[in-house]
Amino acid sequence: MSDAAAIEVRGLRREFRVRQGMFAPPKHVIAVDDVSFAVPAGSVLGVVGESGCGKSTLARLILGLLEPTAGDVLVDGQRLSGMDRRARARLIQPVFQDPFASLNPKRRIRDIVSMPLIAQGSFGRAEIERRVDEALDRVGLSRDQGTRFPAQLSGGQRQRVAIARALVLRPRIVVCDEPTSALDVSVQAQILNLLAELRRDLGLTYLFISHNLAVVEHIASEVAVMYLGRIVERTESEALFATPRHPYTRALLASVLTPEPGLGVPDVGLGDIMPDPANIPPGCRFHPRCPVALPRCSTEAPPLVDDAVGLVECHLVDVEAAPAHA
Amino acid sequence: MTALLEVRDLRVTIGSTAAVRGTSITVNKGETHCLVGESGCGKSISALSVMGLLPRGSKRETTTLRFAGEEIGSFGEKQMERLRGDRMAMIFQEPMTSLNPAYTVGSQMTEVLRRHRGTPRAQAVDRAAELLARVGITAPGLRLGQYPHQLSGGLRQRVMIAMALMCDPELLIADEPTTALDVTVQAQILRLLATLQKELGLGILLITHDLGVVARIADRVSVMYAGEVVESAPTAALFAAPEHPYTRGLLTCVPVPGKVRRDEPLGSIPGVVPRVSPGFTGCGFRDRCSQAHAACSGTIPRQTVSDGHELLCTLAPGWVAREAA
Ligand SMILES: Nc1ncnc2c1ncn2[C@@H]1O[C@H](COP(=O)(O)OP(=O)(O)O)[C@@H](O)[C@H]1O
Ligand SMILES: Nc1ncnc2c1ncn2[C@@H]1O[C@H](COP(=O)(O)OP(=O)(O)O)[C@@H](O)[C@H]1O
Ligand code: SF4
Ligand SMILES: [Mg+2]
Ligand SMILES: [Mg+2]
């Protein structure tokens, strides 16, 4: 699979030292812990999990905005570490949650979109203008909107600007970190439809992060569920939603409130202990919240079950899978 | 059913913005009424009007603002202060709106009771501990001594709910109480609100932009657009047969697992919520509406679809069914 993979990460790990106050020793936060996967070109890997589980850290590692503590990132078959910044920018681009924070308020939209081209240092004026027009057009912004400032646009239009800027170098891969989380549902739908259309038309590969499982289900071909820095389940999208196997995946799915009246609010069964990346529990890191934990879950790390359905790290799944292997 | 809160024809102008334009809302005892709509539709301003907490420079007019049978529209700040936190309480999306970072959870919770009821300290502490346990916080004794920043977002939201309940309010107004939380925590907090309501007979006015939340928790729904309630109905009726083009549009935008195929686009509403000025006439939604026609620039009739189901639109109730036939 390796040669077809647009993104491949191997044993990826990232720690942070977090100061606890004036006198306490700094703590180690393991934000991403031994993560490996490959995303085939042209597909969409959705990444879900609660806040603080390491989604944005993973995105920034893959974008080369953060150095891994250990492990490798390969983009389009090439090692990211040591790759020239400009070459990297031509391959992979980000779209972040808050378009307002990521757009310079003092610059006009056209200038913002042209920045990646100018940074390359190899494009002539005419080519830059042509590419900017093309990118604005692709995302549904008019020439007139190109002459405005970010504050003069709506939230949805600003996210279109961020997408145009990501596309202007014609990258193969786009990393979307909660691209619709700050938007109203009607605008979210517009942006999701646009991203889907762009992927089809341009043959893009996405790493698509969201805390909204319904959004991920709509756009992703495969879904990775993260918990405290690890991917605890990774399965093709339809199978994951039809038969989630990890108890955490099940809890996440159960907590999606679909607009169906009469069902009430589900009991997710997770209790009120919150995960803390500075204090990762021994054994299975999910065990303190797991409604179906076995005795061994608090002491033994679960093995990775990798079968026809997908990948899961859970003792329960291992027990169920065992007879089939025997 | 007795109306706990009755708001008739509420209008709020802030500078040159008509933030709320003739909204009527009734919340019955023991009932959850959800206000839903995109941001900027006037949900928060409607709620703040009831609490007497409008931003400076707002002008409020209303024909009726009745709480527990008493007209409170003419109440001054002193009288409102006595009601707030006592018989009506409000919780916000951001718990730190209500929590003071400089004081412990315990001292803030007991202060509410001491101010409104003059309850002795020891008794107030007992009540605070009891309520923290009630909202599902383990080790309430420990939490009472902690500062807000020492708690997770979900815990803070629970503390805020417990604090809102200190004086046994009859009405709870919750403005996007779970919007900033993880879905897992959101489910826990909403379950808690539903349980508390059943046990305490609270009336709840819950503001959200999430139709999933509405479907699961509301008894009645009012859909707001550009400062008006454009459709209002019992929850089951609204989801079974939405009539307003805005309600219908919103529903098609929501991704529902298993409902829309991956290669098919979601429904969407073009454009954005307009900011409307006081002289505005016609339907506020007409620029985005797929059904708009000439009459939509005139006076829009408020029509009855069925018992308790109201529609503010030029289309005749039942148009959806007729069109499908
Ligand atoms: N620059 C940083 N310095 C210290 N800790 C960080 C930094 N970035 C992220 N973290 C920590 O790493 C963990 C994962 O964070 P993040 O990747 O942002 O999660 P998510 O995007 O899933 O919410 C959190 O505990 C967070 O506090
Ligand atoms: N403090 C304020 N000053 C001026 N305008 C405001 C203020 N608060 C709200 N508005 C305006 O009032 C309208 C309704 O806002 P709001 O009630 O906050 O909407 P919602 O809660 O539905 O998102 C919007 O047009 C908004 O811009
Ligand atoms: S009044 Fe007209 S524009 Fe407004 S929602 Fe109804 S049909 Fe659409
Ligand atoms: Mg993040
Ligand atoms: Mg609001």
Describe the overall structure.
- The complex is a heterodimer of chains A (326) and B (325).
- Chain A is α/β, with parallel strands linked by helices and 326 residues long.
- Helices cover 34% and strands 23% of the residues of chain A.
- Chain A is built from twelve helices and twelve strands.
- Chain A has helices at 55-62, 85-91, 99-102, 109-120, 125-138, 143-146, 155-167, 185-202, 213-219, 237-242, 247-254, 315-325, and strands at residues 5-18, 27-40, 44-48, 70-75, 78-79, 92-95, 173-177, 205-209, 222-227, 230-236, 304-306, 310-313.
- In chain A, a hairpin with a 2-residue loop joins strand 4 and strand 5 (78-79).
- Chain A is globular, with a radius of gyration of 21 Å.
- The mean pLDDT of chain A is 92.
- Chain B is of the alpha/beta class.
- Chain B folds into two domains: 3-87 and 169-324, P-loop containing nucleotide triphosphate hydrolases (Rossmann fold); 103-160, no CATH class.
- Chain B contains eleven helices and 13 strands.
- In chain B, a hairpin with a 2-residue loop joins strand 1 (3-14) and strand 2.
- The model of chain B has no long low-confidence stretch (mean pLDDT 93).
- The interface between A and B is large, with 47 and 50 residues.
- The structure holds adenosine-5'-diphosphate (2 copies), iron/sulfur cluster and magnesium ion (2 copies).
- Iron/sulfur cluster binds at residues 244-246, 283, 285-286, 289, 291-292, 296, 300, 313-315 of chain B.
